[in-house]
Specification:
This protein has about 350 residues and is an alpha/beta fold. It contains eleven helices and 17 strands.
């Protein structure tokens, strides 16, 4: 059987790529891809050119669900017809980070859509190594199958929040009104956050943020964040950076209360530096956390949460696989929140 896909060869260079589907191992699973989201990292690689860590040509896409077509002879947890999602990284489960439950930092991990072919294809093969690690997860009944493709976003946001000392009732600042910010918003509201202020510039996203539970959806094109914080005496317990703007990250660290936390969630370009007043940082006992991807436990938890979330409301447009290049261009539109590809 042939797998049909689009692969990235270079900056703004997506081409059709077909290959033979691998033979299913006794512990492996073959999926027919249902829908795949275009992530911010996919867009960066397309418009800015792939970074050296990418194995080219590469089929992008790590936000997807699929229907089981074939399960290996030793697989008992999955059968043809099951709908499942796949965690973004295939860990070795034997290195030091993996042994500490930090499989997202696996020393030998294979990142889907970076090192091995991703979900912008009509089929995806889940190797035995991934199935045995628990990275193939059934979508629970009651979940929207298309929205469930965004389980990876939820899992990464959940992982990020777990790096912090967030508690019920805490006030939160979320910088960035994109899919990541909107997923954080839903999780934090579900987890019992108090006031949540989300900042951004795009009106339809800010409106959606209000509908999904933001206390304030602040248009920073009209109302300066620092001025807002001064006017409202807003000193959040936690600030989450969901947009890679370092000056705002520095401001957010300044705004959080003494003892509060800053989560640097958004991806930053290599070499990005942060200015830090060590005196003020030390004597106000603030905390800075980094977060990358998610571990398999986070991914499993995120799948379980899908029926309680409204991730489907983030999907603004869907394209056929044959129209993948057009989908990438549409995803950059100001009106787009989450653009999907549906083989």
């Amino acid at each position: 059987m042939k797998v049909h896909s689009f692969a990235l060869h270079a900056k703004e260079d997506l081409r059709v790529l077909d290959w033979d589907a691998p033979q299913v191992e006794p512990g492996g699973v073959l999926l027919r891809v249902n829908v795949c989201g275009i992530c911010g990292s996919d867009l960066r690689m397309f418009y800015e050119g792939p970074s050296p860590r990418y194995t080219l040509p590469i089929v992008l896409g790590h936000e997807f669900t699929g229907t089981v077509v074939e399960a290996g002879a030793h697989v008992t947890a999955f059968k043809p017809g099951d709908i499942a999602a796949v965690a973004p990284l295939i860990p070795c489960m034997s290195c030091r980070p993996c042994s500490h439950g930090q499989d997202n930092l696996c020393e030998h991990g294979l990142v889907i859509g970076t090192h091995i072919a991703g979900g912008m294809a009509d089929y995806f093969y889940v190797p035995e190594r991934m199935v045995s690690a628990g990275g193939l997860v059934k979508i629970p009944q009651g979940a929207d199958p298309r929205a469930a493709a965004l389980t990876e976003i939820v899992a990464c946001c959940l992982h990020g929040i777990r790096q912090t000392s967030f508690q019920i009732g805490d006030s939160v600042l979320i910088v960035g009104e994109g899919p990541v910010g909107l997923a954080h918003l839903q999780l934090l509201r579900m987890m019992g956050a108090g006031q949540i202020v989300m900042t951004g510039l795009i009106q339809n996203r800010l409106k959606l943020a209000e509908e999904l539970g933001a206390s304030v959806a602040l248009d920073v094109g009209k109302y300066d964040l620092k001025q807002f914080a001064q006017d409202k005496a807003f000193k959040p317990d936690l600030a989450i950076i969901a947009a890679p703007v370092m000056p705002v990250s520095e401001l957010a660290l300044e705004l959080v209360r003494p003892g509060g936390s800053l989560l640097l969630f958004s991806g930053y370009p290599h070499g990005t530096k942060m200015s830090l007043d060590a005196y003020r940082f030390h004597y106000s006992e603030k905390h800075i956390h980094g977060s990358i991807d998610c571990n398999i436990r986070d991914f499993q938890n995120a799948a379980e949460l899908q029926p309680k979330l409204q991730m489907g409301r983030l999907i603004t447009e869907t394209f056929a696989l044959k129209d993948t290049p057009q989908a990438f261009r549409a995803a950059r539109s100001a009106e787009a929140v989450k653009t999907m590809i549906e083989p």
